[in-house]
Amino acid sequence: MKLRSSEWFERKGKDGFIYRAWMKNQGIPADMFKNKPVIGICNTWSELTPCNAHFRDLAESVKRGVIEAGGFPLEFPVMSLGETLMKPTTMLFRNLASMDVEESIRANPLDGVILLCGCDKTTPSLVMGACSVDIPTMVVSGGPMLTGKFNGKDIGTSDLWRFSEDARKGLLSEEEMNLAEAGMCRSSGHCAVMGTASSMASMVEALGLSLPGNAAIPAVDAHRKVLAQLSGRRIVEMVLDDVKLSDILKREAFENAIRVNAAIGGSTNFAIHLMAIAGRIGVELDLEDFDILSRDVPLVANLQPSGQYFMEDLYYAGGIPVVMDAIKKYLHLDVLTVNGKTLGENIENRKSLNNAVVSTADEPFNTLSGIVILKGNLCEKGAVLKPSAASIKLMQHTGKAVVFEDIEDYRKRIDDPHLEVDESSVLVLKNVGPKGYPGMPEVGNMGIPKKLLDQGVTDMVRISDGRMSGTGFGTVVLHVSPEAAAGGTLALVAEGDLISLDVAARRLELLVEEEELSKRRDSMKLAVNTFDRGYTKLYVDHVEQAHLGADFDFLRGGSGSKVSRDSH
Ligand code: FES
After folding, report:
1. Of the residues 29, 220, 335, 558, which has the fewest C-beta atoms closer than 10 A?
2. What is the reported pLDDT for 541?
3. Domains of the chain by range and CATH?
4. For ligand 1, what atom is nearest to the CA of residue 83?
């Protein structure tokens, strides 16, 4: 077969000379350029992305596999998005990183690519970029950290929210906080709970983009390297068989991913990223599909933040393959996956090894699962809520709005002893959406006002156009669309307005007469893009609303793998 890379490396004359000769300065023998599938290893390694800091080692395992299968591996860096350090929020840069990935793959002599993904946004940005090129592609995730330890107990990122509330209440001393900090991150890898990074790793496994077992193997377990090496071998075969991303990413694969995310209590961020990926590969997906498809799927994985255990425990219980076995009656089993087998074949004879961690569909941990999509006059295009992380008693609730106009307003007033708030109030945070912040940060699970914390209040209804960390929890309505900064009704909410949330009916309503709302709408000043240069200007001008995946309007779809002009 004629390889895409042969347009570079098989060339005669001056051009071929240039393509090969400069590569040879890395000590590459001449036979590596002769009709061998060139496999790009798209690496998000960075010391500024601690969750991905072990990726150079992982890339070596992939390379070994590629060479064993007769391929030619070439590792290249792309923008890496580290959740813990980057400001103002990594979501601002997800689309930028996806552009880097897309153009790096297309512009170079690559026949196939392995995406090394870990921390939250590194997975969707790489998959989105690769979809817009559509050559044979596999994902190797970096794997979760070992479970954290503090005071003889297992801890993970979700405990951070509890520690922080305890410290505000004076129940945890600074010294104890230091001990918790020292015990939280004990090894390489990403967050050890079913937060966004684990949800993304599970998503690619459920989509069929990784070898079975990819999501749960801890970063430091030797099997992670074995999986990387086997992936290196397999991607060479995929190139020879010409299995592209679009051969795997059919509508049925997306439906499987939505159902698996429900069964594991995955992150609400899953919705926004999967919508963006669907937009790139051209699969029709609607926000309401997340609700419709996951409504009957029970929560079978008992993992934090919806449950009790950690990713390491999921690995010992059998990983995502046994979760898929537990809910197989809800899945399309005949879809193709990257190892050339169907999903059904991949999970054959895989049974949970620990029913306390992965149970059965008949005896689930919670019948509430998935992502609920709310509609109503407060979120005409939709909003999301994760019922397994919410309080049952607040699922149907009407309360008076306590309004914060932006994140600075919230920070200034939330702990003010004079704040007029009680436990039945509904906290509303505006202008933290894609355009409003800009970048849609994870601030939607606002902390409980200190004076209510002191009274023992642990949850309240909270509503915003922002996102929530996948490790967060509470009765939190997120991704309100259209956002306040785009003229959504959220912008019109005033202090003391009544808001009604009815999760069973999928409704979120602002109980204010239409006449009054239209008066407020007439006097509303729409935010203008105050960024006059650089990437942030591009972002605010082109980012779509949350219900569409917050991708750029001009990035939808793909441009294939053809290079538009040949300059040599
Ligand atoms: Fe990277 Fe949580 S901070 S996965």
Report:
1. 29
2. 95
3. 372-523 (3.50.30.80)
4. 3
